[in-house]
Amino acid sequence: MYYLCQEQISIVISLTYRYFIKLSYHGGNYHGWQIQPNAPTIQEVLNQDFSLLLGEEIKVTGCGRTDTGVHAKLFYAHFDSESKNLERDPDFVYKINGKLPADISIQEVLKVKADAHSRFDAISRSYEYHIQRTKEVFQRDQSHIIFGELDTKAMQSAAEILKEFSDFTSFSKVDTDVKTNNCKIYDASWDFSYKKMVFSITADRFLRNMVRAIVGTLIEVGFRKINLEEFRQIIESRNRSNAGTSAPAKGLFLTDVRYPPELFLSDQVIQ
What three-state secondary structure class fits 10? Predict the structure, then answer.
């Protein structure tokens, strides 16, 4: 008879909890969202300050990758932590904002399902592009400025044309790693006033540089460099070189991201 002696092994299982963070930032001092070597990014700052505050390694995943200089009025990211019920700690948001620089602000921390993903579970995103029509001292780093007479009716009609298409290769940065250039645009429109104009667009997803390329091409429509039929042909060509120059990053804001309500384990989220 053989006797098997087993050594008792104590296995410690470390539980983690997943959270969404709702934040905003001014992108002027950063080389976009995603971590890059030798360049400051939003993701890098959040990883460092959340890790310091929570006393554990925190890796934050964002709902998208904003480019250098692009701003976010509303942005979502997720992270995992061993800390339980952070969403109920009234001092946590205050403490993390105290560590973060002045151009990044955390608005809420929300507990979500363990497999919730801030990027892949988003069902729509919205952007605004801000353009000043007069010299504005206090908005110079948050808006583009253009002068001259514009055909605003044509610009609005061209924005409507966008909703007829699904392939936006003509407005995408070349050599990207995405599997498809198809997007579903739910809304696209301009709001015009004497001193300012704002382009708003909502879609299920966006390609790299897509909004800025669209805005740059719509401006050419406004200056009558291209007409509506030519605008339509640019989209159909699926060739980035046929579209207009991208508008500067400083005028672009991510303004909203929507998720299925069932992802959230807290009633704090406002949809």
Answer: coil
Q: Is 124 helix (H, G, I), strand (E, B) or coil?
A: strand
- CA atoms within a 13 Å half-sphere pointing along the CA-CB vector of 120: 4
The domain spans of the chain are 17-121, 124-255
d(CA 250, CA 77): 22
- Which is it for strands 144-145 and 196-203: parallel, antiparallel or unpaired? unpaired
Instruction: Express the helix, strand and coil content of the chain in percent, nearest 5 each.
Output: 30, 25, 45
Local structure of 68: helix, strand or coil = coil
- Bridge partners (DSSP) listed for residue 197: 131, 192
Residues known to be catalytic? 67
Per-residue pLDDT of the chain (271 residues; tens, 9 = 90+): 444 444 443 344 458 999 999 999 999 999 999 999 999 999 999 999 999 999 999 999 999 999 999 999 999 999 999 999 999 998 999 999 999 999 999 999 999 999 999 999 999 999 999 999 999 888 888 999 999 999 999 999 999 999 999 999 999 988 777 889 999 999 999 999 989 999 999 999 999 999 999 999 999 999 999 999 999 999 999 999 999 999 999 999 999 999 999 999 965 544 4
Do 124-255 and 17-121 fall under one CATH topology? yes
Topology of domain 17-121, per CATH? Answer: Alpha-Beta Plaits (3.30.70)
The domain made up of 124-255 is a member of CATH 3.30.160.100: no
The residue written with tokens 């890059």 in the block is 36
Do 130 and 142 touch, CB atoms closer than 8 A? yes
